[in-house]
Specification:
Length: 386
Amino acid sequence: MKLFVILGVFLMAVDAYPSDNLLLPDPLKSAEGMVISSSEQWQAVRRAEILELFRTHVYGRTPVGRPTDLRFETKEITPTALSGSATLKLVNIRYSGAGGEGMIELSVFIPNAVPKPVPGFLLICNRSRENIDHTRENKSPFWPVEWIIERGYVAAAFLNADVDPDKDDGFQDGVHGIFDSKNVPRSPDAWGTIAAWAWGASRVMDYLETDEDVDATRMAAIGHSRGGKTALWCGAEDQRFSMAISNNSGCTGAAIARRKQGESIEAINRRFPHWFCANYKEYNDKEDELPVDQHELVALMAPRLVYVASATEDNWADPMGEFLACVHATPVYSLFGLTGLNTDEMPKPEHPLHDGHIGYHLRTGGHGLTEYDWNCYMDFADKHWK
Ligand code: GTR
């Protein structure tokens, strides 16, 4: 909501949020001060600048793309999974580097009753393996496969720990151990664990592009919390994903850092020193000095689809900060002639915003990925993909 305030002879538009009197980095002004006024300028100049800033100061630089020996081993195909409604494919994605070998175990359910290729959702699972149980003995709302299949979408998932275990071990294990050079000191912009997980999602995309049952041009990367931070960074780095979904991603996910609400940069770096690059620690308690803020991460998805979801009791993730990132990413969508968010008023709980290319909802309850959230994501996909 804009309030118009008459100040002397000036008419000023002031954002009427209690704590949105923030000076945010302007996504539409280049490093050299050029005003970005077209989608061409955004794509040619500004997008790359912002991406580089996030690499240098926040998530770190990923030293390797698709490994030359990347290979996909289909372990199992079950054409009659879920009582015949889906085909299940279990694929081992293998790669190696100077420091050894790695493998991602991917599960992909494809609905049988839907014309191929089928769009869908790749869950970056940051919880235990039971949450993405392909035998379906354990059924978790974290990955409601039956429901996703019923709604006609691909349900794919992998475990983040396959790519890099979530621990502060000096970057010895996982893909850091495989690909980082042992002979030179680690640089302050070397990739952290969130970037490693995002890299893993891109290797899954490498596979999905080869699967003729899957529409790889309409795949969403989805994650919860640290997985949501990963989904957004993955969508920024890998433009093959046509949607990124951030569920309760909070600090260094969708939430604006400069609001200093909920988890701070200092708190996240202290508790999870391995998630981001070493440079990010320079911004502990210095949010205002960061050359980017998280609305620009959301904006890196433009003109593709992006969805941010918050929960009313999840103050640690700063729901208002997550919403405002969408509001402040919207001008970048406008460059493409698209609506980002179609309002700048925080919606009430259970009143999702699905009309624009940026989706948002606020769910009643705490930190978590629930069936309500999934339903919203599929409603949004129905609206924009079908
Ligand atoms: C919390 C962390 C958050 C969020 C969350 C999660 O402890 O402070 O940034 O990532 O973990 O991933 O569940």
